Amino acid sequence: MASRAHPVDGDLSPATDGGDLPIKSSPHRHKVGIPPKQNMFHDFMYTFKETFFHDDPLRHFKDQPKSKQFMLGLQSVFPVFDWGRSYNLKKFRGDLIAGLTIASLCIPQDIGYAKLANLDPKYGLYSSFVPPLVYACMGSSRDIAIGPVAVVSLLLGTLLRAEIDPNTNPDEYLRLAFTATFFAGVTEAALGFFRLGFLIDFLSHAAVVGFMGGAAITIALQQLKGFLGIKQFTKKTDIIAVLDSVFSSARHGWNWQTILIGASFLTFLLTSKLIGKKNKKLFWIPAVAPLISVIISTFFVYITRADKQGVQIVKHLDKGINPSSFDQIYFSGDNLAKGIRIGVEAVAIGRTFAAMKDYQIDGNKEMVALGVMNVVGSMSSCYVATGSFSRSAVNFMAGCQTAVSNIIMSIVVLLTLLFLTPLFKYTPNAILAAIIINAVVPLIDIQAAILIFKVDKLDFIACMGAFFGVIFVSVEIGLLIAVSISFAKILLQVTRPRTAVLGNIPRTSVYRNIQQYPEATMVPGVLTIRVDSAIYFSNSNYVRERIQRWLLEEEEKVKAASLPRIQFLIIEMSPVTDIDTSGIHALEDLYKSLQKRDIQLVLANPGPLVIGKLHLSHFADMLGHDNIFLTVADSVESYCP
Amino acid sequence: MASRAHPVDGDLSPATDGGDLPIKSSPHRHKVGIPPKQNMFHDFMYTFKETFFHDDPLRHFKDQPKSKQFMLGLQSVFPVFDWGRSYNLKKFRGDLIAGLTIASLCIPQDIGYAKLANLDPKYGLYSSFVPPLVYACMGSSRDIAIGPVAVVSLLLGTLLRAEIDPNTNPDEYLRLAFTATFFAGVTEAALGFFRLGFLIDFLSHAAVVGFMGGAAITIALQQLKGFLGIKQFTKKTDIIAVLDSVFSSARHGWNWQTILIGASFLTFLLTSKLIGKKNKKLFWIPAVAPLISVIISTFFVYITRADKQGVQIVKHLDKGINPSSFDQIYFSGDNLAKGIRIGVEAVAIGRTFAAMKDYQIDGNKEMVALGVMNVVGSMSSCYVATGSFSRSAVNFMAGCQTAVSNIIMSIVVLLTLLFLTPLFKYTPNAILAAIIINAVVPLIDIQAAILIFKVDKLDFIACMGAFFGVIFVSVEIGLLIAVSISFAKILLQVTRPRTAVLGNIPRTSVYRNIQQYPEATMVPGVLTIRVDSAIYFSNSNYVRERIQRWLLEEEEKVKAASLPRIQFLIIEMSPVTDIDTSGIHALEDLYKSLQKRDIQLVLANPGPLVIGKLHLSHFADMLGHDNIFLTVADSVESYCP
């Protein structure tokens, strides 16, 4: 293995003498390397590439003939040209089964989710017909199942309702929904094309867990209307208003037949989910359970005419495929601005909660596909669709091979729209409510919350803040809390970097944080501090002040113990990847104030960018080139021979 | 020196054999320390302290009797009780000279600066009377000279004028100015008291240099009105509108007598500045030059009656000290909100450009002093005052000993207000213009801009963006550009941390960036990557993808050179100070994808927080505790013995 390697020795080998012998001076001290100067253009291009093309998406295009490049380009935009060529009957079998499974799952969900967005049930089905077809041509993941999802539907409904009342102005409301969907698509495509997707990755995992849990509970609470057969229901979403509405209607508004149907089928759904969880091979049981529930309950209501007993039913579901809606999109006026705003918000949220993040695919290319899909969708009566967590998992387990499973699902939805919608007439609303409750239960991720609690208490506070914000106030406030906390965390990270006092680990030349390694000992007369971040304007003053405080504290300790006074302050710069002019000023200030107290400032292992800038700004000259070392050990060795 | 120290050896000692001998296994491998568990409260308090009390302001209060603590507290809020007790005649001599010097400098400046804020000249003088008195009791710096400053006056004028026209509504304008000053003070005091000053340190040094340069040119251009004796002048501040206004008035609007007076005294002022720069001992020449200019020019106009020739003069300056203005502050209505907004903006800018930043004093305590001073000021007809860069420097050089120099200045201003204002009647406006031009010239810091250009090209673009934004559009747009660029930089820092491939520096056990140290060699079969930032939700995906790209590139190289395939991927975690659940997920994903390709993931030197979290989340178990090492050298040694 190590035949070509230079020897890696000495680091942890025992000292020749365990104790107090003076340290021998190294015959060849290594200089801190100054990287070759780059010109401005090269510098800029490097930063540009690392920022926007860190995954080197054009890698495959290098050194290829023109015709091949064209083919690769086509395949890159339409992956169907890639996997389509090797498609065969065996793959189709897998896709067919997976497609049928997710279709059986999505049809009842779609009808319910459309209601969360305050839209007619048919728009849910529409949105599971056109977008999956577009995605099948352009998307690069084979597992992802496309369609409306619960959280985005709820958020879109909340945002749209804030602008237009869906009950008094249903037509305008619908037009605004299409407008928002159109601009959601445009935003996604633009962010993806310009590789700016990372700009909207601004929610911390903890905030997402909290928000999702809160949204799930909010969605489940909204289902109590259908589940309990309540006629008068609040339009607010906070838990207090909803429970108040539920209990105040308890005397006359509940319908026991509805509750009976809803409760028994919810039990059935939850049981089947449990079975699927226990035995991964039986994943198809929870997958088909919703459709079975719909069929049985519809048939049951039809023969018992339970709707005459007050059991609310779907009543009417339009037949026929998506009508064109291009002329419905607002391209001018007030509603244009509203549509853009809501669309952009929906994208930001949709992206954060989308299933894509867990797949190792090119996020930016994926966003272009989703964007085109929503633009096309908005012109064919669909509202915002994205990748669904739960259905994607089922798709994968059902053995999908390619995006054809989305096409199969799309065809099933098409057939449903063409022929089967009248059959939904007697489907009780309670069943749809039960299906949605069942679908959002996994969003309440208690395991994740426990892990967050264990790993980071501050993160847990963020998680709970978002959670309670959603359930006690509103979805938007919950989101605002989640975003604010995430930003506050970024701000803290940037303005308050960590610093640590280092000590020498016995019998090595390694210097480590003395809090982590209590056995590490400090060299008398020397204080070694590691700064754990780039030094920028945002933290340069803090870093300087914190270092001075470490020094002050150490000096007090040294004085109390009558040890030799501190003569050298070594800053271990390994983690300091960059420095700006403010940072250099802070070092200058520190150097000057130390000089007054006769303490020598020493830098250990400044990185390539830092050493370059220290030279350019002449701070290296001010400090003295002899006071910049490759390692902490090296500098200690130089000063305390 | 090193008598108590453990030996620091081996690190750079030559290998026993220069070349290909297998590396000997170390008999005692150090474990990665896991810090003792902290409870939630302790954890929270530590973070809280490091965030808000990193400078340990209560240090002096520890272990003191109650009475002493009270005294210390009093001295902390009113430092005058501290330095006042040892005040003596010798110190007073220094303060007297310094106070007289800065008074002679500030009086003509004040009159001009008030005009930048679209206020009567007397408000400039008012603001140099009350605020310095308050500061003298509460401020902790002895050098800082208090009063109106050019950039804040310009910005306040711009913000106020956007709300109320000072020509048609002078009374309301004045009231809004007091309201903004009041809330500027309240904001300062609150931020200081809650130790949140760092929240508004959001402008990078480069952006500040650009903004200041642009503001200086904008201020100088505004002075052309007085300097050239133009009667009709544009109200816009951008260079094109101003120059257009200047040249279109050239035929009939300029007054040669005015130009003659202005130009000769500007030459005098600039020459005296040059003399002061060449010989630091003659600093008093530029300090008294403005007052001398005022006296001579006023006398000259008085005897020649040049004002009859079209030379514009001050004409009228109210006699008497600051009237109360408490009842003028808006505490309700629309103007309250406007006043708050403008006040907060003025603070944010004032703080960024304040002289305080360069002094090593407690920034938060200082903000409380400034805040109280502006609150009191707003009630006594003053507008926003702060520490002046240029006058503080003069104060220092004139030998000020304590804040008494501010009191002396204040008394001189008081005497001026009481007795000397009528003398300003014949002062030509051209002189005030020349004094202001002379005062803002040092704000154009070409040296700093050149340094920024040399050190960081991207920073230079930020600097120029702010500069051209101010001079070509407006002060607010320039500020917006400066803030946006600064934020973008923070965002980049957080979302795109650096990573580096490490190699072994020959004859050492040190691993360093191979780009910085071309002599560093990579160990065959091993790829070592250092991640240079905490791994959080904001960058976890990027870090994972970037590591995978390094691996891919390295594998291609290895393949091309027919070297042994890569079996170990070592991540040097020293700079990774923290990790959150998203970051742990990213490591898990990386581990799994490497496992599929039969590559072992190895971690080197995770810090105290990171190792604790890796254990709690069971990632350490998944990875295997044997795959976490203290150093890179240690892990290479283990795998390639």
Automatic annotation (TrEMBL), chains A, B:
A GO CC term assigned to this protein in UniProt: membrane
Keyword Protein transport appears in the UniProt entry: no
Membrane topology: Multi-pass membrane protein
Location(s) in or outside the cell: Membrane
Broad class of where this protein is predominantly found: membrane
MF GO annotations: secondary active sulfate transmembrane transporter activity; symporter activity
InterPro entries associated with the record: S04_transporter_CS, SLC26A/SulP_dom, SLC26A/SulP_fam, STAS_dom, STAS_dom_sf
Transmembrane segments: 144-162, 174-194, 206-224, 253-270, 282-303, 367-386, 407-424, 430-453, 460-488
Pfam families assigned to the protein according to its UniProt record, in alphabetical order: STAS (PF01740), Sulfate_transp (PF00916)
Domain STAS: 516-639
Region of interest: Disordered: 1-35
Keywords assigned by UniProt, alphabetized: Membrane, Sulfate transport, Symport, Transmembrane, Transmembrane helix, Transport
NCBIfam families, sorted: sulP
Protein name per the record: STAS domain-containing protein
Gene source species: Brassica carinata (Ethiopian mustard)
